[in-house]
UniProtKB/TrEMBL annotation:
Residues of the signal peptide: 1-26
Protein's recorded name: DUF4840 domain-containing protein
Keywords linked to the UniProt accession: Signal
C-alpha cells in the first residue's frame, strides 16, 4: 500500500514539474520590424481564388512586384475565354493556343506605420486578348477593376489584394449576358 502511495506521489510530482516546465514565458512578444515602401518589391507565390457566379477555382500562382508594377507572367484567363467561347471543346483549344498571358497591374503605395502595412492603390488596365475560334480571331477587351486597396503586411511579409473582370467587349460589342469574374489573392508569400 505504501508503495502505491509513494508511486502516486511521485507521478503527481512529475506531472506538476512537466506542467511548470512547459509553461511559456510572458516575454514572447512580436517584435515590430518597420516597413519601407521598397519592401513590397520581390517575387511572390500566391493562392488565387477565381469565382464567377457560383463557380470557384483555386490554384497557386506566382507574380513579381517591382517599381510600382505587379507582373503576372501567366495571368489566368480560363474563365474569360469560357465566357466568350461557350463550346467547352473550342474554349479549351483557344486557351491552349493562347499560351501564357502577361498582365501588368500598376499601383501606388503608401506606408501606414500605425498598422505596419503598405497600402496599395491599384490602377488596373484593360487586358487585350486575341481569342482564336473556328479559324477566326475574336478581339476581346477585358476591363479589369479593383474596388478596394491591397496590402503588404509587415507581420508576415505577405501581400493581399483582389481584381474583377467586370466587363468584356468582343469585336466592339459588350458581352451579354455576363457574370463578373473575381480574382482574389487572400494571401501571397514573398519568396
Amino acid at each position: 500500500m505504501k508503495k502505491l502511495t509513494v508511486l502516486k506521489s511521485l507521478m503527481i510530482a512529475i506531472i506538476a514539474f512537466l506542467g511548470f516546465s512547459l509553461t511559456s514565458c510572458n516575454d514572447d512578444k512580436y517584435e515590430l520590424i518597420p516597413l519601407t515602401l521598397s519592401d513590397v518589391n520581390g517575387s511572390y507565390r500566391a493562392r488565387l481564388v477565381t469565382s464567377q457566379g457560383g463557380n470557384f477555382n483555386e490554384k497557386i500562382i506566382e507574380f513579381k512586384a517591382k517599381d510600382s508594377i505587379i507582373t503576372f507572367n501567366d495571368f489566368p484567363v480560363n474563365e474569360i475565354v469560357k465566357s466568350v467561347v461557350k463550346d467547352p471543346v473550342k474554349a479549351n483549344a483557344a486557351i491552349a493556343s493562347l499560351g501564357k498571358i502577361e498582365y501588368k497591374l500598376n499601383y501606388t503605395s503608401k506606408l501606414n506605420t500605425e498598422q505596419n502595412v503598405v497600402e496599395l492603390t491599384f490602377d488596373a488596365k484593360v487586358l487585350n486578348l486575341q481569342i482564336p475560334v473556328d479559324g477566326t480571331v475574336k478581339n476581346t477587351v477585358i476591363r479589369l477593376v479593383t474596388k478596394q486597396k491591397g496590402f503588404f503586411v509587415g507581420y508576415d511579409w505577405s501581400m493581399r489584394f483582389a481584381l474583377e473582370a467586370d466587363k468584356i467587349m468582343v469585336d466592339g460589342v459588350e458581352l451579354t449576358p455576363y457574370e463578373v469574374i473575381k480574382y482574389e489573392i487572400p494571401i501571397s508569400i514573398k519568396n
